[in-house]
Specification:
GO terms for molecular function: cyclic-di-GMP binding. With about 200 residues, the chain is mainly beta. The chain has helices at about 95-110, 195-200; strands at about 20-30, 35-45, 50, 60-65, 70-80, 85-90, 130-135, 140-145, 150-155, 165-170, 170-180, 180-185.
Amino acid sequence: MLLQRPTVQPGSLERRRFQRVKLHLLGRYMLPDRREFPCQVINMSPGGLALLAPGIGNVGDRVIAYLDHIGRVEGKIARIIDNGFAMTLAATPRKRDKLAAQLTWLANRDILNLPEDRRHDRIVPRNPIAVLTLDDGSQMSCRIIDMSRSGAAIAAEQRPAMNSQVLLGRVAAHVVRHLDDGFALEFTHEQLEETLEDNVTAR
């Protein structure tokens, strides 16, 4: 199921040490002057990525990005492309291994028609109504569609910004995806199954 490694010229071997996967992930990124912009990744490897971006910095600029399904990555702009730029990724060997596994799963997901990541079994709480505290301290009522030890799907009229930090009950989380009728959260720390429901519905 893995994508075929592209043929490259010798001069490109260093840039292509890692296999690039074509995919479409949304996210946000920040340039050194702290301006933030939305973006769309068009290909990625554990060593770098290319993205469509409205705000383009200079080659060598440091970039911090938050990407759906991937999370936080950082690196430097390597070259400018049409309507965006390519960047290298600064990551430990352990982080690169994790990225490789994530990219393999994302590349194969559509081919295999896999559902969303199911690292943990999803359950529907007995009391699905919860209070969400946003990063500005304001609160809103929401309904938990389903949840697991690692995250939850939320139905609500208001959708917090992607990657914003929130509290679901007393569980810290961040927004990883927008849904048609709400959003998905990933918990900052994996929860214990026996205390999960009490923690997310705490007021």
